[in-house]
Each structure stands twice: as structure tokens, then as C-alpha cells.
Amino acid sequence: AAGTVPPDPAPLLDISGLAQDQQDYFPVITLILSSSQRQRLMSRDHNEFNAQVTVHEATQVGDSPQSGWSGTASIGLHGKGTLGCQRKSAEVNLPEKVRIAGKKMKKMILISACQDDTYTQMISTMHIAQKLNLWKSFFHWVEMRWSVNGNVESRGVYIMNQRMEDKLEDEPGNTVVLRKNYGMNHELKRPDSESEARTEMETWRELFQCDRCSSGGPHSCLEDRLNLKQYMRWIALMDVLQGGDYVDEVYFYNSYPPGVTGDARDTPGANPPLFWDIHPWDFDDMFQRCHSGDCNQGVMVGTKPACLSILAKRKGLSGKRPAC
Fold first, then answer.
1. Of 90, 169, 251, 267, which one is least surrounded by beta carbons within 10 A?
2. For residues 321 and 181, which has the higher predicted lDDT (pLDDT)?
3. What is the pTM (predicted TM-score) of this model?
4. CB 4, CB 84: distance < 8 Å
């Protein structure tokens, strides 16, 4: 019927074939909710609220939880892509770091993968990206349960993912993390304001003006300021796996350039040059036709034809355009 929300596919119970080597069990995250809090998680309300949370380890979905951590956490819906689903993605912020699946976590995103009717596309792409050293944040299958007025219900399996800005904060020399949106738009994740990162933001904007660089030409400019190999590897992966909407699904973060170690970065006043790297995000539109409208233009750092041409020739893609 018009206006009704279609049911999500039943969560798969046997997904060990997709698991990481050490992943042969499901941690269980239980949210202890009131009836009104449950309704908020079923609605489109993004406002956060505090509730009791328990974290346990279990051998498989449905097992009785073992002893674990319990405390008050901040809970809220995450993103917009799952708002039309019965099982929505959520963000859980714990008051302290808690070991979950062998990793100490404080802030986590629980991805419902409700648009992935096989529960394989997103997690498989994350594993492939991890093997290519494109995906660095920790992820693991978990089971989410809700306990409402003493009644426990399983919400199925979710992908627990470490918050990107928390992971990238650990990268050597990192001070800025931002997410690129369509065109030149961006969302600053850290620091809190651009006034705290004027120099870094200037170098990031210069990436989009690669034909204005001085000696050496545009590709030299990009290679001096961007991990171009990883950037092109990400585009190639999205092209092969048909990422339907990845133009705005990438994080940029600054770090020390490759090879800059020891005295070159630790000596006071050394000031190694700023260097940008990338981390992909949100693989919920894999194996689909392009539906962003500007895949062939906005995906590259340099959006001008000259930049695209030089990048293509340098990478042996002359005559081809990056496509979804």
C-alpha cells in the first residue's frame, strides 16, 4: 500500500564465511529502552538520548550473553539512508572505552545494511577495501537487541564500525578530517571550526585547482600533496564494483607524507609538508548504476578537464573517463 514501509530482509544467521579471520562470534549490544525511546528509534528523530546499554560477547546469534560491560550511553539515529527502513542505523557513544570483539571502542556506528538484501555487498566491499589498505577503521558484525520494559527482542545483525574521525585521529600528524560532499562542498569533522585549520584547508582547496600549480605541472602538484596512488585505487575499486553513489562518500585527512619519519617529523620546527590521504565511506550503493548525476566529473579531486586528462594519461587511462 502507498506510504507503507516494506519489511527488511531477514538477518542472516550464518555469515561466518565473510568473517575476518578472528571473527567467529557475534558480540551482543543490548539497548535498555522505555517505550517512548523505542518509538524514537523507529521514527526519523535524530535527537540523541541517554539509555542503559550492555555489551556482551556471544558465540553466535541468539546465544545467551556472557558477562560484559553495562552503563549509560548516548544513543541516536545515524545518517539518512536507512530512515525509510524498519531497522535504522544508529550511533552509540559510550562513556568510556569498552573492549568489543577485541577492539576498545567508545563511539561506534551500528549500520543496519537494510538496503543490502543479501547482507554481503557492503561487508564484502569493506573487506576488499581493507585488503587494499583503503579501509582502516575497525568493523565487525554484532547483534543488536532491545530490552523494552523487560521484553527482549533481537534487531538482527548490524555492522559495528569505528567512527572514521576517531580512527583517523590516530594517523601520524593528523589535525584535520573532512568529508567531501558534491562539488566543492565539504563537512568538517575535526577540528570544530575552519578557523582552527586555515592553512590545512587552503592546501585542501588547492587540490581542486591542479592546473594552477607552478613548476612540475598538475600531476606533480597532486603527487606532492595527495596520496594519488590510493585515490586512483579507490576510484578503480568503485568503478569495478559499480559504486552507484560514491562522489560524496570519501573522507580526506592530513598526515605526514610517506617516508617522512623519525627526525624529519619529530624534530621541533621541522614542519614536514602537508599531505592529504583518503578513506572511503558508506558502501550501501554497491553494484548499482550511477545515480549521483556527476560521477564522471565531481569524483576526481581536480574537476577541470585539464586535471582529468593529465590524471588519465599518467595512470594509463587515456581516452577513458572514471565512471560509476
1. 267
2. 181
3. 0.75
4. no
